[in-house]
Structures are given as C-alpha cells and as structure tokens.
C-alpha cells in the first residue's frame, strides 16, 4: 500500500519558483547542439554561458498512478536568430499526455506526432495546452520576458530526449523583422 501523505507545493505565479522542488538548470553549453548557428552558440558560451532554462520538479515518485508536475522558466534570448528553447522530448511511454499551463510570458509550443504531423500552439498567461499522447513537445520563448509555465504529466511517462536531439524538430522559430516566424529546420534529419 502507498502511504504517501498529501502535500502542497507553493508556486510563485510570476517567477515560476516552485518550493520545495528539485531544480534542473540548462545553459547554452548544455543545449548548443539544438541550435543551427553553432558559431553564435560558442560566442555566447565564451561570454558567460547564460542560462537558457530551468525546470523545478515537485518531489513525486516516478511511479504509475502519480502525477509528475513542475514549472519551467525559459529566459529571453536568442542564439543567432533562433529563440531560446527547451531540449524537448517525447515520453518513453508514448501513450501518455501532458498539460502545459502558461503563467507568464509569450511562447510557442512545438509538437510533432509519431505520424510526422506537426503543430505549434501559442502560449500566453492563462493558456492551458493539451499535448495528446504520441506527440513530442518543445517550448520556445518568443518574448522579451521569461516564459513561465506549469506542467502536469503521468509520473511514470519517462523522458526520451535523444530522439529529438538526433532528428531535430521539423520547424525552428526565428526572429525576422521583429516577429517570431516558423521556418523549416535546415538540420532536420529523416526518421
Ligand atoms: Fe513531457
């Protein structure tokens, strides 16, 4: 029998701080492989290696029946013309969904299904995006403030980062004339 007691975490709706929580930090050096402009990435690393994003997880067992939950904070910035983004993943248990509830900022949620379809949803304070089973997901901060969102997912879903790192997403998000624009990913590899 699972005798875990109910508990609260406290989320700062502006900063995304989740307490108590376990924090994962990604700097440009951790995610440079995701960006097209490698030279711009190396330049950023040499000039202080800024934070790209942080994820703060509530302490929940990664077991069937539990709900994993976390906040993600993506800082504003670009590598070349490409906006800061998360590594992105699909769930090891492909048949599991997730909800992203945006608290602050302006973003794009990029998704790709196992059938090769892709979608991009706008993220804005109050948007609750439903990521169905069988869709990879990655988030991009297209604004000038931190993009902050709260995620809820089956705790035993698992995270497969390698497939997306190897293949890339069909689209990337770049700034053109002050606007966030989706263009084909020149580094996209076949499945
Ligand atoms: Fe996920």
Topology, element by element:
Elements: E1 10-11, E2 18-19, E3 22-27, H1 28-31, H2 38-46, E4 51-57, E5 67-74, E6 78-79, E7 82-83, E8 90-91, E9 98-104, E10 107-113, E11 118-123, E12 128-131, E13 135-141, E14 147-154, E15 159-160, H3 162-167, E16 171-176, E17 179-184
Antiparallel strand pairs: 1-2, 3-4, 4-5, 5-14, 6-7, 8-15, 9-12, 9-14, 10-11, 10-13, 16-17
Describe this structure in words.
This protein has 191 residues and is mainly β. The protein has one domain (17-184): Jelly Rolls. It has 3 helices and 17 strands. It has a 6-stranded antiparallel sheet with strand order 3-4-5-14-9-12.
Characteristic key phrases:
single chain, 191 residues, mainly beta, Jelly Rolls, six-stranded antiparallel β-sheet, 17 strands, binds fe (ii) ion
Tell me the count of domains.
1
**CATH 4th-level superfamily:** Jelly Rolls
Tell me, what's the shape? globular
Q: Might you state the CATH topology name?
A: Jelly Rolls
Mean pLDDT: 96
Hetero groups in this structure are:
fe (ii) ion
Can you give me a brief rundown of this structure?
This protein has 191 residues and is mainly β.
